[in-house]
Amino acid sequence: MRVLVVEDEQLLADAVATGLRREAMAVDVVYDGAAALERIEVNDYDVVVLDRDLPLVHGDDVCRRLVELQVPTRVLMLTASGDVSDRVEGLEIGADDYLPKPFAFSELIARVRALGRRTSVPLPPVLERAGIRLDPNRREVSRDGREIQLAPKEFAVLEVLMRSEGAVVSAEQLLEKAWDENTDPFTNVVRVTVMTLRRKLGEPPVIVTVPGSGYRI
User: Fold this and answer.
1) Can you give the chain as a three-state secondary structure string?
2) Which positions fall inside the OmpR/PhoB-type domain (predicted)?
């Protein structure tokens, strides 16, 4: 899942991004509304965590722009005000969910994951394929009952492949969904991660390389 965090309090923004990355999400961070508009014009995000009171361009206008683009991106709006009228206004603008500050980080993660599930074809909360069982909420993976420990990027790549339900996923698509914009697209990070993931999943191999196209399970 790829997430954009838009928050002018830099310490909070960076903390949120760090926490989401630990949950195997690819996260970009910006600190004002103008930068947010630039990112959403060029990148595809599953979820935008959007502070409402932003400098340069207000969060409401960022949300309106996302609605105008008619993209499947979901918006979780954050604000220091928890008044019912503010929540109603945010939802009417186009936000999909609303979370007042201060918030429990566990709730933020749960809401982001719930919104992320709504950007694609509905799938069961626990993914199963080729003997692999992946639980995104608990961050647990097993194969034929054997528990497997994965690093965050390995987990993210496996989740993308599992969600594709047998379709081929290109290296570019894996980069987009599992890494943030600071990753050099010309590195072999995808190939190395897939190799490590294959080894951890064990025999027989379940991740198939489709020459010239990408990978599938």
Assistant:
1) CEEEEECCCHHHHHHHHHHHHHCCCEEEEECCHHHHHHHHHHCCCCEEEEECCCCCCCHHHHHHHHHHHCCCCEEEEEECCCCHHHHHHHHHHCCCEEEECCCCHHHHHHHHHHHHHCCCCCCCCCEEECCEEEECCCCEEEECCEEECCCHHHHHHHHHHHHCCCCCECHHHHHHHHCCCCCCCCCCHHHHHHHHHHHHHCCCCCCEEECCCEEEC
2) 124-217
> If we measure between CA atoms, which residue out of 161, 177, 180 comes closest to residue 169?
161
Pair of tokens at residue 8 = 């002018």
What is the C-alpha to C-alpha distance for residues 37 and 59, in angstroms, rounded to an integer? 10
Q: What is the pLDDT of residue 34?
A: 96
C-alpha 16: how far from chain center: 13
Per-residue pLDDT for 51 more than 90? yes
Lowest pLDDT segment from 97-106, 112-121, 164-173: 112-121
